[in-house]
Design brief:
- The structure is a single chain.
- This protein is of the alpha+beta class and 438 residues long.
- It folds into 2 domains: 202 residues, D-Maltodextrin-Binding Protein, domain 2, CATH 3.40.190.10; 199 residues, Periplasmic binding protein-like II (D-Maltodextrin-Binding Protein, domain 2, 3-Layer(aba) Sandwich).
- It is 46% helix and 11% strand.
- The protein is built from 20 helices and 12 strands.
- The strands form 3 sheets. It has a 5-stranded mixed β-sheet with strand order 2-1-3-11-6. Strands 7, 8, 9, 10 and 12 form a 5-stranded antiparallel β-sheet that branches.
- Helix 3 links the parallel strand 1 and strand 2.
Length: 438
Amino acid sequence: MNNPRTRSSLRRRPLLLALSAVALLAPLTACGGSDSAAGDGKTLRLWHYEDKDGALGKAWAAAITEFKRTHPDVKVVFEQKTFDQIQQNAGMILNSDKAPDVMEYNKGNATTGLLAKQGLLTDLTSVVKDRGWDTKISDSASVTARYDKNGEMGGDTWYGVPNYGEFVLTYYNDDLFKKYHVTKPTDFAGFEAALAKFKAAGVTPLANAGNDHPAMHWLYLLALSKADQKWVDDYQRYQGKVDFHGPEMTYAVNKFKEWVDKGYFDKKDVGLKGTDMTEQFVSQKRPIMVGGNWWFGGLTTDIKDFRWSTAPYPGSRMTLGAGGNNWVVPTKAKNKKLAEDFIDITMSPKIQKLIGEEGNVPLAAKADEITNPKSRQLINAFDQDQASGGLAFYPDWPVAGYFDTWLAATQNLMNGGKTDAVLDQLAAPYEKYTATRH
């Protein structure tokens, strides 16, 4: 999982899931009324879950406007969904006559890969090649758009098209570093020295959220600091056996626990959400935040009273990241050609530039084409990570339902749980799945 929409909520209670399913199955009425004409080449039914004020929400709105301009005889029936609605009920919806023509969907084996394996998504390989999208998206960014017959990423068949990239980096409050005479780190020793100096001054240094993705991002990032590409391939793509009691994960849980014990993480953050973590940073309660570039645009808007900057996490050559969420075309979509036309617009120079100007990372635009200086810095950093093989995906991707396992494990650590028990907790569902996957 990757952005605030994909990570901001835990699994809801069954009643809420049922209500989400009802909402998804309800007749589509937005932006043009009834979709009774769907299937005649005159109606495009589109779903996504991006906030309208975010970089991607603005980009998709502009893409819809452009689609309407270039397709004046086509009615666009757009439905704003929540991530949970789509994530929890996609299989049921896409196997019905209520499937949209094009939909934003999370990438990874447990999401796009699973639906592809179930035959619910259209094979887009020939379309990708015919329209040249494969020349605009790097091999590393397209890994999570391509799947094999088992629904495992990195295959030869395109089931989705990403338009943007995402990665995890470090955010620094430059004014707080200056106020407390702390040197901004360039290596891991300097990073830990900064943590210690802030704590000695009575400042909890690290923003965190234990009831959402940030804590698990921290744990995986610590593991990556001791990992190599083979370990990532073994873990994410099942190319070899993963020892959860090996040096990578053992170091991660021990270092995480050490930072909790030293007060670099606040134990009380165990119940917080991702937006609570960003509020800690914006309100200047925490000088350091490690988070995805999906927070970047909002921080640019929200921070008015202090100077801040970004940099790679200095403790690891690799970081969490990948190509962004996929546009997918359900197998039961009624107007697939219109869906392809819409995706093509999202890959156009105009929309790609807008993604960059609004503070996200376009896959088909260069940094020097973007006038926003902070965005240029962000895009260059992502390009460097791509070029160096530094994008290591996300910890919950390998197994369906693994997000909940990682969430419980990191909460266990924050609550004082034993490290060996946490390693066993993470290993159990992974080893069960990999033992029976073929």
